[in-house]
Amino acid sequence: MESTALCQGLTLCGIVSWIVMSSCLGVTQKLRSLLQPLVSHHVNNGTPTIVQIQKYQHGFLDALFSALSCVVSVPFYTAFLPLLFWSGHVKLARQMTLLMAFCDYLGNCTKDVISAPRPCCPPVRRIATTKDEEENALEFGLPSSHTLNTVCLSGYLIFPLA
């Protein structure tokens, strides 16, 4: 039990130290100035590929992927995680809450550091089913929160925490 508390204390000290050091040394701005031009170049060069893929559109596929994107969105977890607590699966709910919080935090930190634009619309077609998705489409695009949440959830399902 003491080793867990020590590990958590060291982790917290490491995070606070990183925040102080990175803000004093301007690490975020330096990383952004290195990475943003490279990522923006790839976004612009990849737009024709995205347009080609989107030519194979079908109403059923649009509805399917739109519904699947809702399963890895923040409103879904806001409703789903309390149900796990209320149904008595406290350990699972705690693990899922920490995992989703960590994934969202890591993804948003990466978005802030890279500040990569989304592909221009048009020619790229965006499907937004909710008001939240329309607002999220105005944010930076890399990494995709839906993709990050999908990877984290899939990893959790494949390698369950003990």
UniProtKB/TrEMBL annotation:
Membrane-traversing stretches: 63-86
Protein name: Phosphatidic acid phosphatase family protein
Lineage of the organism: Eukaryota, Viridiplantae, Streptophyta, Embryophyta, Tracheophyta
Keywords, ordered alphabetically: Endoplasmic reticulum, Hydrolase, Membrane, Transmembrane, Transmembrane helix
Compartment(s) where it occurs, according to its Swiss-Prot or TrEMBL record: Endoplasmic reticulum membrane
Membrane topology: Multi-pass membrane protein
PANTHER family named in the record: DIHYDROSPHINGOSINE 1-PHOSPHATE PHOSPHATASE LCB3-RELATED (PTHR14969:SF28), SPHINGOSINE-1-PHOSPHATE PHOSPHOHYDROLASE (PTHR14969)
A single MF term (Gene Ontology): sphingosine-1-phosphate phosphatase activity
Record-level GO cellular component terms: endoplasmic reticulum membrane
InterPro entries associated with the record: PAP2/HPO_sf (IPR036938)
UniProt key word Hydrolase: yes
UniProt entry tagged with the keyword ATP-binding: no
